[in-house]
Design a protein that fits this description.
138 residues, alpha/beta, four-stranded parallel beta sheet, 4 helices, 27% helix, globular, binds iron/sulfur cluster
Length: 138
């Protein structure tokens, strides 16, 4: 079983209420090989919600609210779920402050990218779970 970002599975869970449907991810879910999860919803944030980005290791909304602790709790929930389901690999949404891997927006809400992992992707990687983004799917 894999976990996949719910927005890639076509669910309207993004901060603006939209999704990022990816046909390959939807196929995996329909085949019963993957389970969609949105870490930010799991952390208790509503949809729609204010956009957030990571700056110097902490997560802030555009208006400056520090969401770091709540985001970390959500990440721990995802890790717990992954362990319970015996997940070895996840497919996550690139560039998200939760799900992204390798590259993220730089915290200035200007579209600039820097190196880094989303809060959840980082925790899963540290726990030996393979993280792919939709950009790495063949
Ligand atoms: S937290 Fe992850 S699953 Fe949820 S909307 Fe953002 S990128 Fe998609």
């Amino acid at each position: 079983m894999k976990l996949v970002s719910a927005c890639l599975a076509g669910l309207n869970v993004r901060h603006d209420g939209s999704n990022k449907a990816n046909e390959k991810v939807i196929k995996l879910v329909k085949a019963g090989e993957a389970k969609p999860v949105c870490p930010e919803q799991l952390a208790g944030f509503p949809t729609p919600r204010e956009a957030r980005e990571i700056k110097e290791g902490r997560v802030f909304t555009k208006s400056g609210e520090d969401l770091t602790e709540q985001m970390q709790k959500g990440a721990e929930e995802v890790l717990r779920m992954a362990k319970q389901l015996g997940v070895k690999e996840v497919i996550f949404k690139a560039k998200s402050p939760s799900c992204g891997k390798g590259r993220l927006y730089d915290g200035t809400f200007s579209g600039k990218l820097v190196e880094g992992n989303g809060i959840v992707a980082d925790l899963l990687l540290k726990n030996g779970i393979k993280v792919l983004t939709e950009e790495e799917l063949e």
